[in-house]
Amino acid sequence: MWRAASLAAVFGLALTGGAFAVGDVPPACLTPATDLDMTLSGLERDGWIAVPDGTLTPEVRDLLVWSYVSDYLIGDTGGEDVQRLLSLQLGTVDALARKRDIPGSKARLLQQDGGALAVFWRVATPETLEIQCRAVRLSPEYPASADLMDAGAVQAVPDGTVQTIVLNLDGIDASIDDAPVGGPLLVGHSLIRFAGVPAL
Fold this sequence. Notes:
The protein has helices at residues 4-14, 36-45, 58-73, 82-98, 169-173; strands spanning 49-50, 105-112, 115-125, 128-138, 149-151, 155-157, 160-167, 185-195. It has 200 residues and is of the alpha+beta class.
């Protein structure tokens, strides 16, 4: 089995700048909104469908987990192997389906054919709001690579940042048991913070 520390070393060599486009992240994730419903409306116009509260389809679960695993693969794995990271982060995704709204923090899971997305709308301060998105989709247009991961540089956008990552999961699947999904996958992380007050 590959050790995560070895994977991280490989991934570190694979980092590239400007490889992907900001357009890989849904536009609604980069648009200030004073309520989560505004963001959801924009996502739905782009073909995303909200998953009913309290439910988590296997497709959404198996895709979205790689958004969280990729955080560790491009950073610090803590010495854990990929199998362990998957197990831990599947628990994180499962918890998202049980998350309940409070006035200052709301989240939704969405899906489309070959894609999954988690969106978080939060009141960061009394006069500052933020929207975070984690999107993952099957991306056969990205050719298989000898590198297991190719990560674009963090890019500045109005009010925030975007980073997109391609995971070649075919290279990872050979090293772990029952790994969900096969690659390549496109992972998009975005966060914007902007002045505003929640809509009543």
